[in-house]
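Quick log. Single chain, no ligands specified.
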Amino acid sequence: MHISNKCSIAVHCLILINEYGEENKVTSELLALSTGCNPVTIRNIISAMKKDGIIDVKFGTGGATLAVPIQDVSLYRICVAVDPKAIDKMISVHPAPSPFCPVGKNIGDVLDRTYNTLKENLISSMKSITMEKIVNDYHAILDSDK
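-> predicted structure:
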């Protein structure tokens, strides 16, 4: 399985916004430097998270801040905000099985039963992981480096 890069970039941005957004102006340029991504990619991700209500962005001078407490932002919410098809991309059936083969013509229905269970479990797990936990992990790693 593969979680979209957009999701990890969004989490990166949210950690930076959480850590510095209240005292400093966190702009797409700063986020691009920190993530190593193109500023356009960052602006698209920021726009998606703003649309979802995860962050606020000041008009004019810019600068992003969290719009909701970090404990209210799940990994699932982030991933779906920045990549609405993320779960389907992670768990899907190959697109062109042979309709002339008994396995090929039924594989979608066969795998849907298992894959739906996987998707439900994945979504449940992703909903249980909040930005609060991720930020705590970030702080634990910082503390271990001291």
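The beta strands are 55-57, 64-66.
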